[in-house]
Amino acid sequence: MNNLAFETLRKAMVDSQIRPNKVFDLNVINAFSAVPKELFVPKHLQDIAYIDEDINLSGGRCIMEAMIMGRFFQTLGLKPTDSVMTIASSTGYAAAILSHLVASVIGIESRAPMVEKAQNNVSTLGITNVAFVKSRLQDGLASEAPYDAIFIEGGIEYVPETLFDQLAEGGRLAAVLRPNDQQVGQASIWTKSNNSISVSALFNAQIPTLDEFKAKPKFSF
User: Fold this and answer.
1) How many CB atoms lie within 10 A of CB 89?
2) pTM score > 0.90 for this model?
3) For 23-76, how does the pLDDT look when each residue is reduced to its tens digit (9 = 90+)?
4) What are phi and psi of 151, to 5 degrees?
5) Which of 47, 114, 198, 202 is most buried, with most CB under 10 Å away?
6) Domain enclosing residue 50, as ranges
């Protein structure tokens, strides 16, 4: 498939998946229009890079479907001066989208080959305000905190306090909450205010739960 075909598919994704699903922020729409998603998936999946579903990658990672990602980015109310951290950044697609919306992006990924692939991808596109770091997902990267927003790219059963600690005052964290690995999760936004955390459910969403964010079993005696 040639570049023109991919451009056609990308426009179709924006027009049929993002715009009709309550995403009206032109900055978000333009960001999705600017990033070639096919670069971020393995070659054997490039023909379906713009499908209206999550794209499963290796090692329990996936690229979240565009509609959900777009609604998250719009609801986060991102500003050009913001600092954002993505968790489970995989091959870097979400970080590349965010690079068009904010001042700086840190991508956290525990799998070294994906860190290398993500960095190569953004370098290929000439993106200079994104960096990827190999780290445990639950740890984030405290040395670059605080963050105005944190985006977890997958389902979670809980949010570690470590990540809340890395949010700036007024900062937001976005993820799909799936307690007890429920079949249908809730796209949710947590907000930090006066050192307390509140959460708002946005809409139903299905995405695989990240192993790193599964609650530890509780034992009774």
Assistant:
1) 30
2) yes
3) 999 999 999 999 999 999 999 999 999 999 999 998 889 999 999 999 999 999
4) -120, 120
5) 114
6) 3-213
